[in-house]
Amino acid sequence: MFQKILGWFSNDLAVDLGTANTLVFVKDRGVVCNEPSVVAILRDTGKVIAVGAEAQRMLGKTPANIIAMRPLKDGVIADFDKTGEMLKYFIRKVHNRKSFISPRIVIGVPSGITQVEQRAVKDAAQVSGAREIYLIEEPMAAALGVGLPIGEPSGNMIVDIGGGTTDVAVISLHGVVYSKAVKIGGDKMDEAIVSYIKSKTKVLIGDRTAEYIKRYLGSAYKIGKADKSVEVKGRDLVSGIPKTITIFEDEIREAISEPVTVIINTIKLALENTPPELAADIVDRGIVLAGGGALLRGLDLLLKSETDLPVIIADDPLGAVVNGVGKVLDELDILRRVSI
After folding, report:
1. Stated pTM of the model
2. Residue pLDDT, tens place only, 4-47
3. H-run or E-run covering 282
4. What is the DSSP letter of 288?
5. What is the CATH number of domain 2-140+321-338?
6. Among residues 59, 74, 64, which one has the least CA distance to residue 206?
7. CATH of the structural domain 148-184+258-315, one choice from 3.40.50.1980, 3.30.420.40, 3.40.50.2300, 3.90.79.10
C-alpha cells in the first residue's frame, strides 16, 4: 500500500537523453517533453540562462559573453555539469515543482557505452534530483517502443539511427545477442553537407542550415526523376559577403553518401555475426528502423537493395526509444532484466 501511495507522488520518468533531442516520458501521461539537447550559458560565470528550444534559437547567434552548446556529443556526455543542469530543467518543467518525492528515472543510453560513461550519466541524473536511476541500451528500448516481441526465442533486428550514434542490435529472450554502435548519425550528415557545400561552392553555411537542407532534400536512394532544389544563404569564403546559392537533391545525396555507407556496412556486419537460427527469423521479420535517421528518404529502399531483406520503418521512429523506456516504468521485472 505504501509503495502505491509513493507512486502517486513520485512521477517516475523515462528519458531518451539524445545528442540532438531529449524526450521525457511520464508514467500515465506519455511523452510530455521533446526539446533540443542545447544549453546556453554565460561565459564568465558558467550560469545557465536557457535550455532546450530557447537555447537552440541562440546557436550560432550569440554575443561574446554567451555560449550556446550541446552538452552531449556522439551519444555520450561531453560536459557533465551542463548535462546535469539540462536534466534538472527538464524534470522541473515536467513536474511543475509539484512533486514531493524525487522521481525514479530510467534513461536510454547507446549500446557499448563504457562504465565511465555510464557513471557520468548516473551522476548527472543524481545531480538533477533523481531517487533511483536505471540505464537501458537504446536499441533494446527502441525494440520495446516499436512493439517487437523481444521476450520470445526469436531474432529481432533493430537499427536506431540518432543524432550522434547508430545502434544496431539483434535481440532475443530479453537479451542482446549482438550489438554494434558507431558514432555516425544525423550530426555527421550535417557536417558532411557543410563540408560538401564549402568545397563545391566556396560558401560556408551554418549547422542549422545544414540540418534544414538534410530534412528538405536529404535522401539515400534516388526515387523517380525529379530533382528537388532549395535556396540557402551562407557566407562567401572568397569575398566574405553573404550569398544565396541553390542546392539540389542529387548533390545532398552525394554529400551524405559516406555516413550512409557506414550505417549500411554496420548493419551488414551485424547480419554476418548473427547466429543462423536467429538470422532465419530476420529473413521473415525483417529489419526495423527507428530514430530520426529512419526518416531519411529512401534509406529503407537502399538497405533493402543491399541486403535483400524486408525493411520496416517504425510508426513513430522519433519516439521509439522514449516510449520503450516508458514501458518498463510499469514492468519492474522487465526493467531489471534489460537494465545495465
Report:
1. 0.88
2. 444 444 578 899 988 899 999 988 888 888 999 999 999 888 88
3. helix 276-285
4. E
5. 3.30.420.40
6. 59
7. 3.30.420.40
